[in-house]
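hey team, just a heads up i'm posting the complex here instead of the shared drive bc the drive is being weird again. everything in one block, sequence lines first with there labels, then the predicted structure for the whole assembly after. its two chains so it's a bit long, scroll down
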Amino acid sequence: MGCAPMGHILYDEVMRYNPKNPYWFNRDRFVLSAGHGCMLQYALLHLAGYDAVKEEDLKQFRQWGSKTPGHPENFETPGVEVTTGPLGQGIANAVGLALAEKHLAARYNKPDAEIVDHYTYCILGDGCQMEGIANEACSLAGHWGLGKLIAFYDDNHISIDGDTEIAFTENVDKRFESLGWHVIWVKNGNTGYDEIRAAIQEAKAVTDKPTMIKVTTTIGFGSPNKANSYSVHGAALGAKEVDATRQNLGWPYEPFHVPDEVKKHWSRHTPDGAALEAEWNAKFAAYESKYPEEAAELKSIVTGVLPAGWEKALPTYTPETPGDATRNLSQTMLNALAPVLPGLIGGSADLASSNMTLMKMFGDFQKATPEERNVRFGVREHGMGAICNGIALHSPGFVPYCATFFVFTDYMRGAMRISALSEAGVIYVMTHDSIGLGEDGPTHQPIEHLASFRAMPNILMFRPADGNETAGAYKVAVESRKRPSVLALSRQKLPNLPGTSIEGTTKGGYTITDNSTGNKPDVILIGTGSELEIAVKAADELRKEGKTVRVVSFVSWELFYEQSDEYKESVLPSGVTARVSIEAGSTFGWDRIVGSAGKAIGIDKWGSSAPAGKIYKEYGITVEAVIAAAKQVS
Amino acid sequence: MGCAPMGHILYDEVMRYNPKNPYWFNRDRFVLSAGHGCMLQYALLHLAGYDAVKEEDLKQFRQWGSKTPGHPENFETPGVEVTTGPLGQGIANAVGLALAEKHLAARYNKPDAEIVDHYTYCILGDGCQMEGIANEACSLAGHWGLGKLIAFYDDNHISIDGDTEIAFTENVDKRFESLGWHVIWVKNGNTGYDEIRAAIQEAKAVTDKPTMIKVTTTIGFGSPNKANSYSVHGAALGAKEVDATRQNLGWPYEPFHVPDEVKKHWSRHTPDGAALEAEWNAKFAAYESKYPEEAAELKSIVTGVLPAGWEKALPTYTPETPGDATRNLSQTMLNALAPVLPGLIGGSADLASSNMTLMKMFGDFQKATPEERNVRFGVREHGMGAICNGIALHSPGFVPYCATFFVFTDYMRGAMRISALSEAGVIYVMTHDSIGLGEDGPTHQPIEHLASFRAMPNILMFRPADGNETAGAYKVAVESRKRPSVLALSRQKLPNLPGTSIEGTTKGGYTITDNSTGNKPDVILIGTGSELEIAVKAADELRKEGKTVRVVSFVSWELFYEQSDEYKESVLPSGVTARVSIEAGSTFGWDRIVGSAGKAIGIDKWGSSAPAGKIYKEYGITVEAVIAAAKQVS
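-- predicted structure starts here --
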């Protein structure tokens, strides 16, 4: 209730939107980073005329199947831009939304046609302010000079555990100034409507810095007995206190009832919003006739319809092509795709030269060069992921990617889960994917990470083995605009293997070589990524001894399990229980594939600091180990 | 090389340590948060006389089995306090080390006996500064007024991707001032030895704030061609440039050769260190005779020998005991253990009243009350985990715990992995462990988290079902001082079940009820946590229909798989393939337990916002589903 004045002014006076088309491209974006206060946002969407939130929906707050879940979810409620609740994510998403606007405006606006032009507003609370992700993202927002990002800091001094004095005594204003933000303080946020209006005016006038408006409020303002208490943080007032509050505020109406005069006041947003969109559509039509090339690109970003035939840009490989690390192959794909995908934009958390993520034809997205497409995130993995979520959810044709070492997904898992949940098709370029990175040692060597993403819903975990599979992984990842992809890529050089293909990769698991007939090999060897080569070599040896051996690449489990039963049976026939898997990572989960009679070769302990070849040998990730296991199970 | 002057002054002039006993309790602690520069630390440990790092070890840098891995690892190299490399962890560990010192000093020092008295030093770089975890931990350090924490910020303007200008233009000094730190700037860190000495003096004089000494250095200082370049960030100079550097610095000696005069200069640290420890031992003996009670407590913390019989404080339960949420039972355990475990200290990330983590007999650890044992971390999960690692690794008898909602382990996984790797026995109290939390919805409902920790090496994942199992989980967690534990606890009330026990829980998986004979039940039902009740009810129904049914609690997979083959066979006989598991989380990994012929009931999609009972029903986590599956498989 303390945020009601800010919310009211934003939705009723400041923001430009069309309630009947929540996806209108040039709308102002609003993010409630303090997602537990979502009833405020639902009420504002309802008043503003959004169809997703009718009176009935408000009454179904936090109930099964409702459009009004316990935290704002973009995939449930049109009008909600991003998914918040986990603290700090929202403000970082807002940085991504503002980055997207600044980038598109710089790239497509013309002196005679300002076709991209909107603000991004955000409300965040003390909880968001304490989270490290918020500091990461806000440091970048200051660095990039995102002048059209305006954040309201709801400074109510209360978090769940009580007064923020118990754990939060830093000087937030000064910290934001140090991060390069313009800071304004509204001392009476409960009733200071004019001060809030003036602050927004001032914020808009500062075009080279993001602005934080600190609004000092009373949590639960209006409630005579519970205001200024942690007991209203994300919890209901209770019937008795609701009555007292109504009386206190002089509000005589029934619950959920919107008086006619209020309805009438807000009703103008429907025609006004339609007019705003119509005006923009006319402007875009003029732009299109004058700048057809730019308009076509922008249209692809706005609509999410990727340019026809884009996937033809992906190269293919034969076993004769010299081998390469999949991280380098990934860079080849990014550079092949950049010219044909206008929405491709991204970068690394200070590891561009290790993750191989630079698009060579572009410069850096920076304060003075926002039209460029290489983003420098600094060592800020969590902020990076959430900023990419914001970019992805800004417009459906954006294809944001970001990168770090695979092990440091641990730093950004909060944002990656939100990618998966909120249907943000971010591509996570994760290199140095196993003990194969060698000398950096166990702090840098992923073990459990593949399993941890295979267990997560709605995310695609890829571990390509060579050039064709890296191309295939990019094909699916780019197409998957509502599902994020994680690409685990090698530091070390890998050969191009016989039988790999883009087509096979899109099925997740497929046979690459087989010397059996009738779908009945003596044994099936299953590998992923850098260990597929080991499986192929072991198969060669076993075949020399007269065995029939199938080698299966299991590049993406999720895709495989989405195939038809018939297809799955054609790759992993239920009659063949002699199965051996090899992967330089945890064996956790592999039982599903190798079955009770099979054997999973992997690593269920920490890695080591040593040259990669030495570690592989000491850990038994070898051709010999596969041969021995194959003989044991078949 | 830019950090060499700071390192030299610290190890040669400032720090108090005993190289022949790297674990001497009252030593000053040093943390190299910029862990990629570990050769400097190895060289200093070698010069100072630590036995772990001989000349031979320096030559084996980053080789198999060496004491000098690619990043500092406390479990490999005595003298290294914590494990760093993943950026930002080290400075947060340092906050934990300094917290531990401040707490023990306040609790045990007497006007006539300052028995706890050491500093914590840390070197961090630009990379650490960008990480959110560092801001979280440093905000707390300022809030707590950790006056004996002195951090050196190696301000070399270079990160892996090049000049920090590309992504890091904030005002770090001002940010640290806003966080409540004292800030000093040494402008010439390459050669300004006296300035560094003076800064340390000044820092020690400021006792109510931590100090950050910004030391402006040149990366690779001394290298004539590569200094001030990103090419030396974590990479070797190369033979040619090493020669040029030697010449430039006027250093004529062979590689790894320490000239006699240098050896002689440093040799005093061995007798000096022994004298420091002897002096302290005498002081402690006097303390012990005067304050036997306090000395006994402190001794337990210093040695890690827990007070005899502490586990008798854990309560037990019968099916007649009224049911309760396991988060509440966890609070009962914490409050039962607090009086008998002097090293128990911890708290929550602003969710104490939801996670139920308050020790009721103690107040809050705060700047003015550092002797208290409830820690208020604010909404800073990642910093919290790393601070607890620092506490755990300060002294082996500390039993630090920390808490948030289970889903937010995603925010702190970087620190949790380091707990597991660096053998820090932190207890992670993770409540609201499934869809059973209800209305908060999918952003707050864990799905893949149990699987993600079961796949991680050296961590114990517990999901207790009732009072006895919560007690059992605490028994193992407290005993496990070199392995962290994660306790997934329910928000909702659960009954005390027949057959559960502390003893059974310590085995990870055990039979709680069975109406079969000869280790041959018709079907085995396996559950964890809140779903064990469902398995018990399904068994009751199936038995009414004449089936023999065993119900197994699988409270900790890791512990079960560490039991003897004989024991495992007694619980899950290989001849009984009719197995059904039920758990309100991802089925990923359950195939290992239920086998190819069994069935795993779980949730492989996102949760929902609705009352818990409704979600359980809609998601098929029900008695009926277990009965149907049991009939299908048996």
